[in-house]
From TrEMBL:
Region feature Disordered, mapped onto this chain: 1-23
Residue stretches spanning the membrane: none
UniProt-recorded name of the protein: Zinc finger protein MSN4
Residue span(s) of domain C2H2-type: 42-70
InterPro entries tied to this protein: Znf_C2H2_sf, Znf_C2H2_type
Gene Ontology molecular-function annotations: zinc ion binding
Keywords: Metal-binding, Zinc, Zinc-finger
Length: 124
């Protein structure tokens, strides 16, 4: 018994989808980079570091170059470089959450929305 081999095909006959043109790999990399790789348009004038957001650059300049801490805790007079750091400090140290209307967690919102809330959401 002799073994049979599969016929050898030429590269032209092995096209995956002739109706769809192949995109070169270089173009795919450029598309990927433009969609997913962080752009860093904000550059520090002091040390040339680059940041994707203006707020990040401002925080870098304050902490690394000027030492400025404009967000101050009223209780301890601690200074913070970023407002988010100050907010986190207030939440964790002083138990101060959101300013304004408190919101229920998502899991609780769905349960409450279906209930009669003392005259609200009543069908008339």
């Amino acid at each position: 018994m002799t073994a049979t081999r599969a016929p050898v095909r030429s590269p032209a006959s092995t096209a995956k989808n002739p109706s769809k043109p192949e995109v070169p790999a270089v173009n795919m990399l450029n598309i990927h980079n433009s969609n997913f790789v962080l752009k860093t348009p904000h550059k520090c004038v002091h040390c040339c570091k680059e940041y994707p957001r203006k707020a990040y650059l401002e925080g870098h300049i304050r902490s690394a170059h000027t030492g400025e801490r404009p967000f101050v805790c009223a209780h301890f007079e601690n200074g913070f470089v970023l407002e988010t750091m100050s907010t986190e400090h207030l939440k964790t140290t002083h138990g101060m959450g959101r300013v304004g209307k408190e919101r229920l967690p998502r899991s609780k919102r769905e349960v409450v929305q279906g209930q009669n809330l003392g005259g609200f959401n009543e069908e008339t």
